[in-house]
Amino acid sequence: MRARPGRRLVFVVSASAAVLLLVRVLGVSAAVAAAIAGLWTAGLLAVAALDVLVSRRAWRRTAPVLRRRLPSAFALSSRRAIDLTIENPGAEAWTLELFDHADPSLITDGLPLSVVVAARTVVTARYQVTPTARGEVTFAAADVRVPSRWRLWDLLERLGGPETRRVYPDFAPVARYAWLSGDRRLQEIGIKTYQQRGQGTDFAQLSEYRVGDEVRHIDWKATLRIGKPIVRAFQDERDQNVLLLVDCGRRMRPDDRPAGAGATHFDQVLNAVMLLAYVALAQGDAVGAMTFGTPPGEQKSFAPRKGAHTLNALMAQLYAVQPTPTHSDYLSAAKDLLTHHPKRSLVVVITNFRDEDASELHDALRLLRSRHLVLVASLRERIVGALIDQPLATGDAAVAVASAHLYEQARRDAFNRLAARDALMVDAVPERLAIELVNRYRAVKRAGLF
Fold first, then answer.
1. How far is it, in rounded angstroms, from Cα 282 to Cα 61?
2. In CATH terms, is domain 172-180+182-193+237-447 a member of 3.30.1360.70?
């Protein structure tokens, strides 16, 4: 039986015990006291059982109906309101104490809820959730505590059913970029803009000559026909491929968030992937993605495509990807990409570079560069900088600082040796990765390198 004693029943039992004790103190014999206690207990049990039966029958006959109004998807670390609609179709009012079973990865605020649902009415309640991890989240049936008709019991019931939603990376950077690009204020988020005319390689239109235009772009036939200088304007090349090769191995597992708050390093990687994909699609390029460093069978692959719905389709593939303890095989990933994508493309390799990876990564990059233009983006872990900046208060702190300096120097030297062979390298802390990637992509487009 899903019920527990209510406050009134506990009070009655406690009062009965106190009265029985008082009767014994006043000198009533034990036999008489036992008879009184037995009769009172039997009567109380009968009333309590009848209360449960009547209340449960009324609940089954007129139980409220719970419906959730959930968003189509959640964004990581973005607080959202969950509205609960409780409809009472019966002629009896109900007082509910409700706890909705949100997924454990959701931080809830406002539960449990106390709701009074009058007869034949609809009541709306609200609480807040904040997702802390990407992937799927499940809302199970809500637990409800309902006082019985005579308030002797609390019935434990369940309302509603299970529902599932997805938690995507935070879309705020893309939305902010779209707003700022429309308002020509990209410098506010650190993205460089290029105002020069005629710097692309694809013909765009004819326009009147202005001071600063290159003379070699003058269209002499149009100039003679119109009677004033006309130049050919060019735009960045379109219809090209951008392939994102995302490392999901053990190097991408660092998580130095204070007390588990904010986005992990890998969350920042997906934010950067999303923003770069948005920018490339806006430029008319096709965007695809591959993951590596995952156990067999768990690799994700997204063929390059264009169009307004490409970003949503890409994130539907990558939203639940998590870094694994698997070793990242750069050479195998390069061979796999060359097999499936032979067309020349801009390949963006996103990884967490360590100095011991230099030899393997060098061979993989040499293989990729035989057919593609390759941009390597590496995460620079925040914890290393924090160790370097700590005060030298103790001997252990001095050892930690020296070790961090040694590690960072070895990593920087190895990275510089790779960069000396190809300037298309980015080394950034997770928060700056998206901006640095967009800046480098726009520079590559402007230079017509692919």
1. 57
2. no
